[in-house]
Design goal:
elongated; two-stranded antiparallel ribbon; mainly alpha; single chain; 53% helix; 173 residues; 4 strands
């Protein structure tokens, strides 16, 4: 919000919405034949203001994109660190379990902790899917091949239930 209300020489800068409205009014005056130097001056002033405003927007957008990228990289770094810690915990537990089993002390207490080697719930290990009866397989729902569908429509094929739409977006380079 502060960026929207920046001051320019003591005057409040118009919002992009206001500038677009002013630009449209001037364009409408020009289309109605009200051509005079004042209209051109106003058009140039608004045009410059839109450029300035767009530049400020671009700076904000680039800053936000940069922050997002930095956060994504930090997330990746933290995920890697978490995986390392999780693997360390797993290895420490396996080492402790091996020691407990080898010494025959599979259940004991200390002042701070209780230790017990116990059986986990049974898990299923699949060794050969080709011999498993079909009744144990789940049918997958059909998946729409949007890429092939788009190509077909682009090539002129008429397919009910779809439409090729053209949208617009701002590109900032």
């Amino acid at each position: 919000r502060m960026a929207r209300r920046q001051m320019d020489g003591g005057k409040r800068m118009s919002t992009l919405y206001e500038l677009t409205g002013q630009f449209n009014q001037v364009a409408e005056m020009l289309s109605e034949g009200e051509f005079n130097p004042a209209v051109i001056d106003t058009l140039e002033a608004i045009d410059m203001a839109i450029e300035d405003k767009a530049e400020n927007y671009a700076r904000l957008i680039k800053n936000q994109e940069s922050d997002s990228q930095a956060i994504a990289e930090e997330i990746k770094r933290l995920q890697t660190r978490k995986q390392t810690i999780d693997n360390s915990v797993k290895n420490l537990k396996l080492s402790l379990q091996d020691s407990m089993v080898q010494t025959g002390k599979t259940k004991f207490k200390t002042q701070l902790f209780s230790f017990n080697v116990q059986n986990n719930p049974p898990s299923l290990e699949v060794r050969d899917t080709s011999v498993i009866p079909k009744a144990y397989f789940i049918e997958q729902q059909p998946t729409l091949d949007k890429k092939a569908l788009k190509e077909a429509v682009k090539n002129g094929e008429v397919i009910e239930g779809v439409a090729l739409v053209q949208t617009q977006s701002v590109r900032i380079r």
